[in-house]
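Hi everyone, sorry if this is the wrong subforum. Our group has a chain we'd like a structural model of before ordering constructs, and none of us has done structure prediction before. Sequence below.
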Amino acid sequence: MTNGEAGAPEFGEFDFRTIVGVFRPRVATMQPTSMYHGMGMQVQYTYAYLGDDQGNSYVVERKYIGSMTGGLYLMCDENGALSLRPETRLSARGELRRFSSPEIRRWSEPVLQRTRREIAPHDERPLTVELTDSSVLWDEGDLLHLEGTPGALGVQGYAPMPSDPWFYSEYPCRVTGTVVGRPCCGIMVVETGYWKHGVEPKEARFFQEIEHSFNAFGNLLDDGTMQWGTLVRGGRGMGVAAVVEDSSGIGKVVLASSDLDCRYRIEDSGQIHYAEQESAGQIWEFRSDATGHMDDFEASRWDGYGSMAGISTLRGDSREVEFGYGWFEYFGDRIPAGKRIEA
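Answer:
Right subforum, don't worry. Here is the predicted structure as tokens:
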């Protein structure tokens, strides 16, 4: 932004102030050819946080740009940190067959796997992802198989900047299945980003300059409720505070605001193990797991990126969390001194 003499934004700029709300997930309104606020879909992700009956936690993530995917990040904490399992290298990557209609989205049939035996990658696992209004399927053979039901509501935020617009949405799904052959359950998320055409997510100004922290979290509570939230704090006016709940297919808005004040406890290592995130009188606390540091995932990024898994809960909520997670990514060197909690 170039400031005028009075220090105000230029004409048409809103200093990355966000519009925040919820939406009803429907495949028909999230087509890759649809335009929103003058922007087309630039990226989608599916990711999930899962637990098995041995007490292990897993994070799986896959990114799609058009019909291309870079492979599956398959992380597990059984060896003391949330590290990549060696099976990650067996996941399908490259071009997929993509199908979109108002009723279903599908990625399947990795193209290289369809070539003759001498050329096809012999150990890559299959891949099929299907999204409908009432179901989700994510199948990668013996690496991962998840099936479930979308939640009633998703969350979304939009920063209407003329040169760097940003529109992001996420919605949760309850899922069960297997991961590396082990029975599991948890929450899967479908995430979609819109901005300038041709800009890769890590090339966007949001990643390179604006973002301070991004906490995506989900909880399965003892009253049968699935709780889902996205808390984003950035420089300038960037703020997203959105939390929804789903009980028996009925959605409830817990929080939807662009005002978010975050305070972080930054360790000498540069890691963030605790944060207070306050909006509209609610305080959402992130606490890391002892094995939550995403060391391999963090190492694959740049610009001072950090990533931690844990749990995010509302202070004062009496309900018990039967299964929960918080994915907390951050850029510690961008956080102002006044927003740091002394250790």
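For your construct planning: The chain has a mean pLDDT of 95. The helical segments are 205-210, 295-299.
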